[in-house]
Amino acid sequence: MLFSEENKESNDSLDLTPLEDLLNYQHENETIKEEAPQILQQIKDTWPDLHGEDTIKPEYQLPHKIQERRERGRIRSKISRDRKKEYVGVLESKIKALEEENSRLQNIVINLNTEKYSKVDPNSKAFLQDIQELKNKTVERFFNVDTMEHKSNPSITLGKNYWMSSSEAMNKHRQFLDSVFEMIINHPYSVTRYRYWKDLNSEYQTDFECIKKLKKLSKYQIPEFMKENNLSPLDEYVASFNPSKRQFDFLKDVALKKELAIKNQFRTAIELLLEAKSIIQKANLEIYTFIGFFLKSGIFSDEQLLKSKIKDGFFRKELAFKNIWNIQVSHQRYCVDMGEDEIYGKVAKKYLKKPERIIYFEYNDYSLPV
Known about the structure:
By secondary structure, this protein is mostly helical. It has 14 helices and 2 strands; from the N terminus they run ααααααααααααβααβ. The protein has a two-stranded antiparallel sheet with strand order 1-2. α5 (158-186) packs antiparallel against α9.
């Protein structure tokens, strides 16, 4: 090397003259020139090459334990990343599967509701089929099915058969009526159903500040706040819009006011339906008891009854809609101008052009002949 330990100690211990010191400096300078190539080669051998070689001499490498610790850290990080990636993938798959299932169930509900609009639901069909089967059994007991002639010696009297079969038929018919009227009341309107209508029984009274506070609460704070302020799902519905004061006034004075008027129309119709159901049930009970009396009284013999036209009621499928009541069907086309509405007409004229305000609907109107 340039200066050995021995030379350093000797130089420190001697008191050299200026001439000797100069001679020593010249000697050391020549030694540096001779050893320079060796020093450069040593640097090249011990440090990575500048052109990309990253091999480090063993004596300059990190200790083996530190390398192992770093390697274990890299492995653990990779395992953690892989687990997270796998977990996220599983969650995404579950979310996709649940979304598909939710979509499938929604389609089933839509299809079921659509079928209920167009035809009687399966339960009602089953009730009608049961009633018809009871009629068929009566026919088989008293008539020859091929010729429709009455049997001379039936195994049971007509009155006794009536009480056995008609009570079951009455129960089936009662279930049928319940199902049909429930279906009608469940589907009086074809578009969106408003669950909050349950609380819409008068003009909306909640103030804007209360709705504003309700919107700012978390889902955990909402139940307690609603209970303290006596709020309803209707208020939740209004708050869900996060309305400005102007929008709140529109909801309160226009939208909910119009919906209340529409709900009252439906309420009137449903009251009439329920009254009609009650009348039908009472009339059914009266005809049930009267026919029982007519058959059981003995005023007419079974032979006379079976030869009479009363047998038509057992096996003929009378279409009462046309053949008895002679219901008149008229196709109507309705034209609605939203700009003429008493409640939101002015707003409709302000925001909609005239062609957009005109709506056409088609319905069948039923009426009894005068």
